[in-house]
Structure formats: structure tokens, C-alpha cells
Design brief:
The chain has four domains: 188 residues, Multidrug efflux transporter AcrB transmembrane fold (Up-down Bundle); 102 residues, Alpha-Beta Plaits, CATH 3.30.70; 240 residues, Multidrug efflux transporter AcrB transmembrane domain (Multidrug efflux transporter AcrB transmembrane fold); 89 residues, 2-Layer Sandwich (Alpha-Beta Plaits), CATH 3.30.70.1320. Helix content is 62%, strand content 8%. The strands form three sheets. Strands 6, 7, 8, 9 and 10 form a five-stranded antiparallel β-sheet that branches. Helix 16 packs across helix 17. The longest helix has 35 residues. It is elongated. It starts with a helix and ends with a helix.
Length: 705
Amino acid sequence: MSGRGGRATLVAVAVVLAWLVIGGVAGPYAGRLSEVATNDNAAFLPADAEATRAQDLAGQFVDRQTIPALVVYERPSGITDADRQRVIADAARFAQVPGVVTPLPLPIPSEDGQALQVVVPVDDAEGEEIGTVVEQLRDITGGDRDGLSADVSGPAGLLADLIEVFSAIDGPLLLVTLVVVLVILLVVYRSPVLWIFPLLAAGMSYALASVFVYLLADADVLKLNGQAQGILTVLVFGAGTDYALLLIARYREELHRHDRPWAAMRTAWKGAAPAIIASGGTVIVSLLCLLLSSLNSNRALGPVAAIGIAATLLVMLTFLPALLVLGGRWAFWPRRPREDQADPRLEHGIWSRIAGFVARHARPIWLSTAVVLALLTFGLTQLGATTLGQSDLFTQRVDSVDGQEVISRHYPAGTGSPATIFTTEQTARQVAQVAQDVRGVADVRPLSAGPQTGPPDPNAAPTVIDGRVQLDATLTDPPDSDGAERTIRELRVAVHQVPGADAVVGGFTAINVDTSDAAKRDQNVIIPVVLVVIAVILALLLRALLAPVLLIATVLLSFAATLGLCALLFRHVFDFPGVDSSFPLFAFVFLVALGIDYNIFLMSRVREESVRRGARAGVLVGLAVTGGVITSAGIVLAATFSALAVLPLVVLVELGTAVAIGVLIDTIVVRSLLVPALVYDIGPTIWWPGRLSRANGEREARDAG
């Protein structure tokens, strides 16, 4: 035995050293993901979207694609001559900023005489450096001076504020996630040593995932944005800690039955690895279903998150077991498990009592919990999925939002960010007239040849490229508002009806419209596919058909209840205006995939115990020995996703809140009460049509006789 133990120790040492070398190479990439992230909405649109085609056409009318920064000055008592001189001086300095495309148009006065606006075109090729350009523009304006306020808004200002938010992911979000996981592990294990192993393994998982994501994004194989980057961070640490908790719990259980740590780990690995692999595989396949999305941003998130889970599985099933073998029993100090052949249920007293309670009141428990969850689903009527406006994106005030509000007070709110209409030269005049008659359109003017040093001249000869003309339609509503989106939809209907026009409508608002439409299409396509995939995996794992159907039903009920509760919280507690159109799909993929995780953890152990003890006894033992670890895992995952709340972006706060609430409902209510009570009440039939159903039925009939 000593020889086998010595070889096992050497193997563990070799595995740990190999992973430390890998970590040394991969580690630096964890802090470099922002270098390859892209946060331009247009870059994520489907190729066949009308806004994408419009953007391609727009590139033919300019030497360089630009994104406008709108610098707006306001004096409520009226703009003075000194103010005009200051604005002209600022504009001259704007033109000197690297990345600004010159010449700049003349400042545009408001009709009420209280504001001046300078449109500053920023080279779209600047990419993430647009944030730096906007920062320099803001430095030049100097904010408020002598009663004259100055704000930098528009699409470039908004993008700069988003880039600043996402830049917090590499540092603060990772730090908050680490602290949250550390605190929970200390509470769960009550050991000053054991927490090191899962946290070190989770960090290794993140480093390994980061290097693959970085290289693929750098090679333009996938597109990474700040949202996917933030989700990758919390997903790897949350799921990694979950898998670690499951393996460590089984390892501790086996240390009571084996004298050597390596022997205990071998048995624990054989018992826990199938559930961990099935769980991770389910999440990976569910995430890869996002490849069916028509939005490039969703298609990117799927592989990015799937890479994170795959890396986590690999690390948690190799590096972590090796660390635990080397740590031995002393890693659990001061509560070191002894080889005493103790019944595993003895270490789970509270969960044994909960299992007994479930056995005595199975039917009332599953009926009452199902009714409560069903009642929460009525909150879905308050969800109101939409495209969040610029002022609704952030949880705190930012300069781009302040600037947009100033523009809305003194100009047609769409000034500086017009809808662009591309049509044939022969129909340009007719299309312009039709567009002008659309409710919500303030002004329509052609893009004319020559440098634009002032407002567009409606009588100027339009620029003609390959027989096409560009018309700029200024909207009366802010470009990111519901009103502007309605106008774009009506504008498209109107200009598409002009015979021979072959009109295409694009621009900032059109991008939002097409993104929202694509998100709704994705929900209708991807959600059914994910459910079918999960059902197949569960059927193969549990070797039954009835159990997977019921488990998926409980997860769907939990998901609907979570969204209902979140809708009420978002509207009446957080005072959010609604949820982004992508929210339901993201919430579904994460909540259902991760919710099935806990089903797999529980039911794989229930099945294992049912083989030895019978169906109903197997439920009680499975609940008793896994209840604690599943609840701990749920708390860890909920806490890590709630770390997204440190980012001042409503979309991520809502997603983090929904996943946290959903996971807690899933672990505390569904997995601890609803599923065990339902399975116990059904009895052996739960394994229909597998052999276990018949064998358990015969055993329980004999026991009853």
C-alpha cells in the first residue's frame, strides 16, 4: 500500500507543478482581456440587418467612418458673446485632438438662444481609444464655468462612458468576486486552510480560460465585449467553486471510509466526477446554443462562457484533486475527518431532519411550494422588456446622459445623431418628402458634396455614389428612446413603399431597433433548443424519461417565478424603467443551465442511493448528504453573480440580481423541498421506463408485504 501511496503522491506533485507552470504562462492574460474587447453595438448586428446594410453604404459616402461626439453648452439665461467666443476657441482645440476628423461643422445655436452645440466627428477606426478621445474633449471643455455648462454626449460620449464602466471588470469586479468567494468558503468550511484549495483552483481556471479567450478574440475568431467579459469572471469563479464544493464534500465523506487520502480521493472522484462532468457539459452545451443567435454579441458570449466552463471542469477534476491529496486530512483542520466508517448522514444532522420532514409531508410540501412559485410568476406582467434608453443604462449620473438631457431641452432631441436613409438618385426627392411627413421626423436633408462647415443646406446638390444618395433625417425624440424607435419603424415602412427607391434606413436608433428585433427572434429559437438539449442529457444521465421531464418542469417554474419576482423588484424597489431586450434570454440560459446543475448533483446521488436502498429511501439519503453542499454551492454562485452589482450598468445589475435570486430559489426551495418531495411522492415510477423503476417497485412491494 505504501508503494501505491508513494506513486499517488508523486503523480499529485507532478500534476500540481504542471498546472503551476501553465498558470504562470496564462496568468498575465487574465488582466489583458480588455485589450481585445469591442463595445460597439453595430459590430454585433447580424449581417442581413437593415442597419448593417446602411452602415456599409455609409462607408461609401465618407473617406473615413465616424461616430459623432456632441459637445453641448448651455446657459439658461441666454448664450452671450463671450460664450460664443469660448465655444469657437474650444472647437479649434477639438480639431487638434488625435482621432477627430476635420474640418468641424460650425457651432449650432438653439432656437431659444440658450445652448450651442458642436458636432465633433471621431474616427471610428479609433475603436476602444474613442474613450481617450472623448476624455480629451471633456478636458478641453472643463465642465461648468461661470454659469456655462458643457457636456460631451452623443454616440461617442455614450460609448466612452460604457468603455469606462467595462474597464472596471479587470480590477474591481475580479477583486469583489474573490473576496465574496473567500468569505463564503471560510464560513462553509470553518477552516483557515481548506479555502485555499478551491480558490486557487478557481483562479487557475480563470487564467486558463482567459488565455484561450484572449487568443481567439485577438485572432478575430470571436468577438468579446465588456458584458461577456464580466459574465466570464463571475461564471468561472461561481461554477468553479460549486464543482469544488461537490468534490470536497464527497472527499470528506470518503475520508471516513479510507485510511489513505489518495484512496479516498479515488473513490470520491469516481463518485463525484460523473455528476460534475454532466453538470458542466450541460452548461457548455446550453451556452453553445447561443451560436444559433442572429446577434454577434450573443454568439460571442456562448463560446466565451463555454470556454470558461470547459477550463473550469479541466482544472477542478485534475488540479484540485491533486492539491487535496497532497493536503490530506490536515487540510480540514481543525475539523479533520477520521477513518471511523461513520454513516455520512451523521455529519448532516440538519439535512437528515429536513429529509425526515419531507418524508412525512411530501405531498403538501411539493403542492404548496409549487403554488407559491406559480403565484410569483404573475409578476411577469411587470417585466416590460425593451431597449433601455441612454439615461436608463447607468445606475449613476454620467456626462453623456447629462448632455443628452440638455440637447433634448433645446434642440430636436435627435440632433447630431440622425437616421440615415440611402436611396436612388432618381427617387431621392420623393423619399425625402415621404420621410419628412413621418411623425417624429423633424428635418430631412441630403448629404452634399464638399466640406461640411455648417448645417446641411436643404437646397445643396446631394452627393451621388454609385447612383445612390444619403439623406439625414433628424428625429424629434432622443435617438435611444422608445419614441425614436417607433419613428424608425414608421420611417422604414414609409420609404420602403416608394417605387424603385430601394431605400435603406440606418443610424444609431436603427441599430437599436434591429438589435431588439434580433433579440426577440433569438428567444423564440434558442430557448426551445436549450430545453431539448437538457432533456436529452438528463435522460441519458438518469436513464429515465419521467424524471427529466419533471425536473425540467421544476426548473421552468423556478425560472418564471424568478423573473416575476425580479420584475416586481426592478419596477417597485430599484425603480428601473424596464429590462433590456437581451435580458430574458441571458437569464434563461444561465438560470436554467445552472438550475439543472443542482438537479444533476441531487438526482445523480439519489439514483446512486436508490440502487442500493430503494427509490424513497434513496431520495432521503440523497437529500441528507447533498443538501448542505448544494445549498453552499448555490450561495456561492448567487454571491458571485451579485458581484456584478458593483458595475454601474443597469443591464449587468439586473442580470446579476436575477441569477442570484434564481439560484437561491432553486437551491433553497426547489432543490431542498419541491423536487425531493415530488420524487418521494411519486416513488419508483420516477425512474420510468428504466429497469430501476421496476426493481425499486418490486423492492418496495416486498418491504410493504
